[in-house]
Amino acid sequence: MLVVGAYHGTSLLSRKIRFETNSPISHVSIMQLPDDVWNPADGVRVNVLYRVLDTCPVWEAWAVMNPFSSEPSGVLKRTGIDEGHTAGTKIELFWIDAPVRIPEAELVRDLDAIVAAGTKYDYVGLLRYRFRIDRDNASRMVCSELVHCVLSRRGIYLIDRREPHKTAPGDLYISPRLKRLWTVTTGNAANGPRTRRSPETGVGAEKRQSKTCNGLQSQIWPVPA
After folding, report:
1. Using alpha carbons only, what angle is made at residue 142 by residues 9 and 52, rounded to the nearest 5 degrees?
2. pTM surpassing 0.90?
3. Domain boundaries, the chain
4. CATH top-level class for 2-220?
5. Which of 21, 131, 132, 135 would bridge with 170, disulfide CB 3.0–4.6 Å?
């Protein structure tokens, strides 16, 4: 199953994004977890969840602010929730309550294609949060743009009437399509609780008609007839 991770970042950049977007969330990603992590009858199988958090695939658009750092930036596919993130970062995990079938295999191929294309991080795009810049760069993305663009291209709209390049992490966080699965903390994947609980109720607003991305998707995916 594919889940959306919403991060309560603590770095200087994370705090600035949270302030500029008036949200507790500074970053989002897409993760792939085993299907048996959750089901409607039993809720969350936390023993399974914590066993895979340090090895599950994570796709995210990642910024590196230090020009002398050797850390990779851009759209990345990482292994586990800890890679690249400060220990102790709180991550809320959400399952996607979509009105259509979630084409997991196709979404994974789409995400891998964006990574393989060498898509860079849209550093100038960060300025839109402060200066309300309307800028769509087909070869660059921020984290929320990646999540919204990939899902909307397959008919899954987390937020409506908002183009992907204008979408902030906090916008996705209040999506009515996201239902809270569990909350985890980086650096603690192997030491989580072993109990089973039901998922929490998601938060969000009413769904509206949406637009999809058109810049990057035309390079990665064939345009439907």
Report:
1. 55
2. no
3. 2-220
4. alpha beta
5. 21
